[in-house]
Amino acid sequence: MARALRLLSRTVVRLRPLPVQGPTRGFSASVQEPFHVCVVGSGPAGFYTADRMLKGHEGAQVDIIDRLPTPFGLVRSGVAPDHPETKIVVNQFSRVAANGRCSFFGNVTLGRDVSLSELRETYHAVVLAYGAESDRSLGIPGEDLKGIHSAREFVWWYNGHPDMCDLSPDLKNTQSAVVLGQGNVALDVARILLRCKTELATTDIADYALDALCGSTIRKVYLVGRRGPVQAACTAKELREILGLKNVRVCIKEADLATSPADEEEMRSSRIQRRVYELLSKAASAHRDNSCNDQKELHFVFFRRPTRFTPSENGSTVGAVELEKTALKVDEVTRKQVAVGTGEFEDLKCGLVLKSIGYKSLPVQGLPFDKIRGVVPNLRGRVMSSESETATVETGLYVVGWLKRGPTGIVATNLHCAEETVASILEDDRKGVLRAPSDSKKHGRTGLVEILEQKNVHFVPFSGWEKIDSKEKMAGQLRNKPREKITTWDGLQKAANE
Ligand code: NAP
């Protein structure tokens, strides 16, 4: 135990009572006891929660656990390699991890290495911030054919996530890729397929992905939306970026740009939608220089929904996506325009399909979960026993990020989300809900270390991640990249232990 505790961050494991001031004044439990908080998941939602918790409660000791040996969640494995500016936030997260009252436990999986009930017994508050690590499915025939991947898998692959380093998408036997969905993730994957490889070479993209993309034969990427250009789910900045890619001809059918009174109404109430529509309209009519032989094509396909995948001649690989033409109809309940099939079908030939229709969260044992919405039922971050009106609060259990509100929003959205959840925790603590004066079972960090030792789990502390980090950065320097990511479980663990 002592050795394990020494391993933790470069940290002072402070178990002495801390002075209590400011926002924590008036909490009910004895000030002699630290307030033990465990955050599960070290992405933006997890780190913002830890930050706000440490700032809001001087007695708080915050442990962040993550199933990966590396911290930062989607900032490392979701944000596109050609968006380095979005990754700068890790500097702020690293300062949080360096706080003497914060510890990182990488390589620890909730539900396998430690159960939710064990965490709840060990900590005064448990905050689930493990996001959405699965995918929505279309539920149409042929979805299992080779050559069809979720965008999440493809993103994890090019970002060197150790679970997806062996994906090996076949980029060599086709000229056409179809991306289903028109959100920002769809734009990310389309952009990575189309972007000039010399531009990618100086990013932190995984080396095997860069090699595969350099050898890619894909010339045409189709971005398929079931609704129209007014409803495209992407945002203007990301759209502008893809529309401006070097050597890429953008193809948009003028007829798809016709708007209905309902579309006009939507654009009046959403500046983002109006801006996206304007950018698409401008791109449709823009004169493009066709002089370059190496030109690729980006096709925006609107009003089409996928109905099945058909195999190529070899039988097991995707050869086409069958699309049904759609029309928009106002839903009577939500008052939103939804796509309805017209009964008219067409095939779009391709050898690669990336389904970018949204991420999905997964429950763990003992956690109330709304399977339809894919979120944990909660009231301002407090986990509720169910969605029903008679639901009760799960004392000491909280949720934040995509698991709380569904898979939407940018990195910064998680700051407000974390502030709301932390406010609930602080309020509950002030009211004396979380700490009974006689409660001696909540050992926090020492309790977690004990559980992990009993189960022979070798966790990676923040100092282990720092070893990975410096090794990656050194390897990157040799290739003029910000880092060369270590992409296997073994490699990461070895680097953390060196
Ligand atoms: P998203 O924005 O929700 O987009 C999902 C897309 O899938 C929409 O076009 C949606 O169409 C479509 N779709 C859903 N179900 C479908 C179905 N059954 N059949 C056909 N199409 C379907 O999700 P996302 O792209 O995964 O992005 C997740 C979040 O991360 C978003 O908030 C995004 O802005 C954010 N993000 C931001 C950045 C950035 O800032 N650079 C980068 C990546 C991600 P409908 O609209 O018709 O439902």
UniProtKB/TrEMBL annotation:
Give the enzyme's EC designation: 1.18.1.6
List the subcellular locations: Mitochondrion
Where is FAD bound in this sequence?
A45, L74, L110, W402
Q: Which GO terms describe its cellular component?
A: mitochondrion
Q: Where is the FAD/NAD(P)-binding domain?
A: 35-218
Its source organism is Panicum hallii var. hallii
Q: What is this protein called in UniProt?
A: NADPH:adrenodoxin oxidoreductase, mitochondrial
Q: Where does NADP(+) bind?
A: Q182, G183, N184, V185, R226, R227, E238, G409
Indicate the enzyme's highest-level EC class.
oxidoreductase
